[in-house]
Amino acid sequence: MSTFILNLLHRPELNPEYAEKTAGGGEKLQVESLEIFKLQQDIAHKNGLRTTIQMTYSSLFSDEVIRLAKDYHEKYGDEISLSLLGLPCKEFKEKYKTQDFCIWMFSMEDKRAIVDDVFGKFYDCFGFYPQSTGSYYMDCDLTAYIKEKYPTVKCAVATCWEEGPKAYHTCNNSWYTLMDGGPWNPWIPSTCNTHVPAKGPEDDSGIVAIPHLSRDLIACFDGNGSNFGTHPQNVLRGMIYQDGEYPYLYNIIDQYRYQARFNNGYSYNMMFVGPGWMNKKGRWEAPYELLVKSYEDAMAYYGQLKRQGKLLDMTMAEFADWFRANRGYEQPECALWKDILYGSNKQHFWYCDPYMRCCLDMNQGGAMIDLRPYAARLYRPCGIGTRNVQDVSYPFLIQANYRAGFFTHYAGEGTVKSCRVSYQGKSADMCLCRTTASFTREGDTRVVTLEPVEMVLGELKAKIQTIFRFKEGSSAVETERRLLETNIPGAKVEIDEYIIACYGTTEYPEDMCGITLTAGEERIDYAYRCRSAESSGTASALIPQINTRVSLNAGGSNCYVSEGYAFSPMFTLGVKGTISEKEGFVSWLRLEKAN
Questions:
Q1: Of 415, 584, 429, the residue nearest 499 (C-alpha)
Q2: Rounded distance, CA 585 to CA 482, Å?
Q3: Are strands 312-314 and 3-10 parallel, antiparallel or unpaired?
Q4: Own/partner pairs for 346-350, CB < 8 Å, 24+ apart?
Q5: Measured distance CA(250)–CA(265) in Å, rounded
Q6: Which helix (H) or strand (E) is 37 found in, with range?
C-alpha cells in the first residue's frame, strides 16, 4: 500500500519580499496580503486539506493574523509554525539596521539574536514555542542553536533543491542563494552539514528537514528550478500552460507519487506559498484570476487524491514523527525520474544516502552526471564572517552542467563517469548510447538495470548491458558491463571504466594543486602537467580541499590516473579489462573521508 504524504505550508507574509517594491508597500499591501492569505487557507480547507501556518516576523505584530491562526488551529487542526523567511518588515529593519533577510547569511552572533527575538515574539503571541520552522536554507550551526534553545522544534524547511548558479543566472545575476547539492526529498540532516543526511543517532541534528518545494528532477537539473515544481505559480512562471490549463502540474504531482515504487511505498510532496504569489496585479504575464485558478485547481487535485484514499495531508510536526518512525538513517532515497516536460524518453536515476548523492543519465548510457561526496561530511560554516557568505552548496566531484560532461566545446573532457568500449583499435563511449532503465531491490541493495545497447566497433557489433548496484552503507557504486552477444564468435572487447572529476560548487574552476593521484604504487602530485601513470590495483585521488578520497577498482585489474592541464582542470581515474561474450566487467567507485 503506497503512502503519498503532502505538507501544505502557508505563510501570512504581510510584506512579501517579491511584492513590497512593485506593489508600493505600506498598509494597502498588508491588507491585500492578509486577504490573499485567507483566500489560500479557504481554498485548502474547502478541499479538506490541513495546513501548516508558518508565521512570519511581520505577522507576529498583527493581532488579526494571530487570531486567525488560533482559529484555524482550533477549527481545522492546522499547525501554528514559525518561519524565518519574511524578516524584512518595518520592525525588523528598524531594529537590525539592515536590508538582509536570509537568516543563514547573517553572522552567527546576529543569527542567535534574531532567532531569540523571533522565537520570543512567537511565544508571547501564542504561549508556546513552535514545533517547526524553516527558511530557504538553514545551516547546521543555526539548526544546532535552535534545537538547543528551543527543543520543541522537530521539523524545518532546510534547503532548496538545486537553487544554485542556474537560478542565479536566470534572475539576472541577482539571486544570491547558492545551495546546490542537497536532497530533493525529506531527510534527517547531519550535525556537520545540513545537506548531508545523518548516518546515525550520534550524527543526528535533531530535526527532520524538508525541501523548499518539490521540483522536477530533470528540468531543475538542466534549467532554473524556480520554473519547474509542484507549486502552481512556478508552472505559470515557467510558461508551461496554455489556455488556462497546465497538465504538467498534475504530471509532476503524479511523477512524485510514482516514486513510491522505489522507496518502500513512500512518496512525498511539499507546497509552500505566501501571499506574494497571488499578487492582485498579476505576475509573469498571468492575471490575478489565473493565479487564483491555478491554486484552486492544484488544491482540488490534492483534495481528490485524499478523498480517494491516495494521499495523507500532514502538518510538519506530524510528518517529522511519521518520518522518524518509518525511515531508517541509512535507508536511501531513490528516484527514477522521466521527462514529463518535453515528452522525450529521457530518464535520470537519483540516489541519496549519508555517503553520497549521485545522478545517472540514461540518455548517455547511464553516465554519472552528478556526484556529491557526503562521505567527507564537510563542515562549511556560512554567513557574514565566514568564507562562505552566500555559497552554501555542497561541493561536487562531477557536475555535467557546471563543468561540462562528455560533450565539451574544444579542449576535451568534462566531468562524467562512463566507459569506453574498444575492439581492434576502434572505440566508442557509452555516453553516445541512449537507453532506459528499470529498478529492482535485492535485500539491502538497490539495482538499476539498463536496457542493452548495441555498439558498432568497426566490423564488430556488440550488445552490452549495464547494471548499477547501490548497497546500503557501503559508500560505493558497483558497475557491471555485460557483453551479451557479438556478431563475431570469440571476439574480445576492452572495457575502460573511467571517471573524470574535479571539485567545486560553481562553473568556475578551483585550484587543483594539492590533489594527489595514485595508480597502485605510482603517484602524481597535481601540477597541471598532463602526466599519466599506470599500474594494477586501485586508481584514486586525494582531494584535501574537500577532505575527500575517491577511488576506482576492478578487483586488481589494470588501472591508470591522468592529470589535467590549466585549460581542462580535471583528473581522470580508470580501470581496464577484457571480456568475451557472456562475461561481465565489474568495478567499484568508492568515496571516503580523506582523514
A1: 415
A2: 6
A3: parallel
A4: 346/218, 347/436, 347/437, 348/217, 348/218, 348/221, 349/437, 349/439, 349/448, 349/468, 350/184, 350/217
A5: 20
A6: helix 26-46
pLDDT tens-digit readout, 79-122: 999 999 989 888 999 999 999 999 999 999 999 999 999 999 99
Return d(Cα 15, Cα 314) in angstroms, integer.
Answer: 27
pLDDT digits (tens, 9 = 90+) for 498-542: 999 999 999 999 999 999 999 999 999 999 999 999 999 999 999
Picking from 398, 460, 459, 458, the residue whose alpha carbon sits closest to that of residue 431 is: 398
Q: Give the chain's radius of gyration (CA, Å).
A: 25
Cα 409-421-476 angle, rounded to 5 deg: 85
Burial class (CB in 10 A: 0-12, 13-18, 19+), 216: buried
Task: Output the pLDDT for position 17.
Answer: 64
- Structure pTM? 0.97
Q: How many CB atoms lie within 10 A of CB 48?
A: 14
Task: Look up cell 505577522; give the residue.
Answer: 59
For 249-269, how does the pLDDT look when each residue is reduced to its tens digit (9 = 90+)? 999 999 999 999 999 999 999
Backbone angles phi, psi at 592, to 5 degrees: -140, 155
Cite the DSSP H helix spans in 390-522: none
Please count the residues of the chain: 595
Which value, to the nearest 10 degrees, does the dihedral of the CA atoms of residues 315, 321, 327, 330 take?
Answer: 110
Of residues 54, 134, 62, 125, the one with CA closest to residue 91: 62
**Triad 201, 148, 327: Cα angle to 5°:** 30
CA distance 208 to 317: 9
- Give the residue carrying C-alpha cell 558497483: 478
- Helix or strand or coil: residue 251? helix
Q: How far apart are CA 302 and CA 232, in angstroms?
A: 12
Cβ-based burial of 206 (10 A; exposed 0-12, middle 13-18, buried ≥19) = middle
Q: 590 near 476, Cβ under 8 Å?
A: yes
Whole-angstrom distance, CA of residue 262 vs CA of residue 446 = 9
The three grid cell numbers given for residue 10, joined into one nine-digit string: 502557508
Contact criterion met (CB below 8 Å) for 42 and 10: no
**Which is it for strands 416-423 and 426-429: parallel, antiparallel or unpaired?**
antiparallel
Closest CA to 263 of 334, 325, 210, 322: 334
d(CA 464, CA 51): 50
Pairing of β 266-273 and β 453-457: unpaired
Task: Decide if 213 contacts 272 (C-beta within 8 A).
Answer: yes
Q: Look at residues 421, 430, 425 and name the one whose alpha carbon lies nearest to residue 453.
A: 430
Query: Which of left, alpha, beta for 24 (phi over 0: left; psi -120 to 50: alpha)?
Result: left
Q: How far apart are CA 10 and CA 315, in angstroms?
A: 11
8 A C-beta contact, residue 49 and residue 306:
yes
Name the one residue in this structure whose C-alpha cell is 530535526: 207
**Which amino acid appears at position 305 of this protein?**
L
Specify the DSSP class assigned to residue 490. T
Burial label for 440, CB within 10 Å (0-12, 13-18, 19+), is exposed
What's the rounded Cα separation, in Å, for the pair 398 and 252?
A: 26
DSSP string, 509-565: ----TT-EEEETTEEEE--SS--EEEEEEEEEEEEGGGTEEEEEEEEEEEEEEEEEE
Host H or E run for residue 444: none
